[in-house]
Design brief:
single chain; Na+/H+ antiporter like fold; globular
Length: 388
């Protein structure tokens, strides 16, 4: 237990140092999540070997990942993304999927990768969960433009989650996965529709009384819904990210606009103050740095995948949004849509476990996701205001 606690002290110390270090960097300032990942790489096994991932750190990291997607679902606000943003998000993702599978199939044929399905799914993702804190800090989460970004990110996360269940499992379990996925979707939709109308008066009163007191019933219920849906998806053999995202949407709908605004900062404090930074630091500690920098092939794959993420997600978004947004916002939306990381980590983990992905390919994809989180949001902010 002493080892666990020592590692936890180190990881939380790195998480606390990240915002300070990010603020010391001259403009353009890096996103705090990137600093957390880099600190994990430096202090952890990839570089200095000073701190290792322990079972306790791993558990807290997994809960951090769940909270990341929970908040992405909580902040989605269906009323903001319905209509043109939703139609654009769906259309661009299906074009992206066709591009991703086509390009990945070509790479498989050329012997660059082992299996096009895993790489294609990874290239079709958008890191809405990772983008959310960045977008909030830059102010790009607000207004009409924020609705388009949220829609692109939501489809770019939910679509690949469905693909994971339907394509990246064994052939014998795909029918079962499809059935369970459909059943879960129906349950989630039914719960979302019922939530605004099922509010026991006594519970509502306690929630209101404890919103600024130690009871904090609203926060406790939110965490319970998150844990329950993550457990349900895990038991059904589905990706836990789906349960976390659905839990966030459910809590958001049940709370309503007024209570949502009061609940938001409290959930932010729990998530971004405790669990999410641990996830990003641990992600850095697990990064296969040697597989990237140890050979020219690893570096070449990182650069290749970083470029392909922009081609697969950014290009369709830029082209199809020509009638929806001004030129600067189209460019910014394209770069935001091309940002990926958490689902890339999940997909590459599945690929390695199934023997369908080489280590250097996994490291190249994850490395490209990390660089995309560092570079693309900064570029998006610059091109949105550029007079071109």
């Amino acid at each position: 237990m002493q080892i666990d606690l020592a590692a936890l002290v180190a990881i939380t110390g790195l998480a606390a140092a990240a915002p300070i270090l990010a603020d010391l960097v001259p403009r353009p300032k890096p996103p705090v999540v990137v600093v957390e990942i880099v600190l994990g790489i430096i202090v952890g096994p990839p570089a200095l070997h000073l701190v290792h991932v322990t079972p306790l750190a791993d558990l807290l990291s997994q809960f951090g990942l769940a909270f990341l997607f929970f908040l992405a679902g909580f902040e989605l606000e269906p009323e903001r993304v319905r209509g043109q943003p939703a139609r654009l998000g769906v259309a661009t993702w299906f074009v992206s999927l066709a591009l991703a599978f086509g390009i990945a199939a070509g790479l498989e044929e050329a012997g660059v990768i082992v299996n096009y399905l895993f790489v294609g799914c990874a290239l079709s993702t958008t890191a809405l969960g990772t983008l959310t804190p960045i977008l909030r800090d830059t102010g790009d989460l607000e207004g009409e433009f924020g609705g388009f970004v949220m829609a692109a990110g939501a489809v770019g996360e939910l679509g690949p989650i469905v693909l994971i269940a339907l394509l990246l499992t064994s052939a014998t379990s795909r029918t079962t996965s499809a059935f369970l996925l459909t059943a879960f979707a129906l349950v989630a939709v039914a719960a979302a529709l019922a939530a605004p109308h099922v509010r026991p008066h006594r519970i509502v009163v306690v929630i209101q009384k404890t919103m600024e007191a130690t009871g904090q019933l609203a926060v406790r219920l939110s965490v319970f819904v998150l844990a329950a849906l993550v457990y349900l998806t895990s038991e059904l053999g589905l990706d836990v990210v789906l349960g976390a995202f659905s839990a966030g949407m459910l809590v958001s709908i049940a709370a309503g606009p007024d209570s949502r605004r009061l609940l938001q900062p409290k959930l932010d404090a729990v998530a971004f103050g405790v669990f999410v930074p641990i996830f990003f630091v641990v992600t850095g500690m697990r990064f296969e740095l040697d597989a990237v920098v140890g050979s020219l092939d690893g570096i070449a794959k990182l650069v290749l995948f970083l470029f392909l993420m922009l081609v697969v997600r950014g290009l369709p978004t830029y082209v199809l949004s020509r009638n929806a947004l001004p030129a600067g916002e189209r460019r910014a939306l394209a770069f935001y849509a091309s940002t990926g990381l958490p689902l890339i980590v999940a997909i590459t983990t599945l690929g390695i476990a199934a023997g369908q992905m080489r280590t250097d390919t996994s490291a190249g994809l994850v490395g490209a996701g990390m660089v995309s989180v560092l570079v693309y949001p900064v570029v998006a902010g610059a091109v949105r205001t550029a007079r071109l």
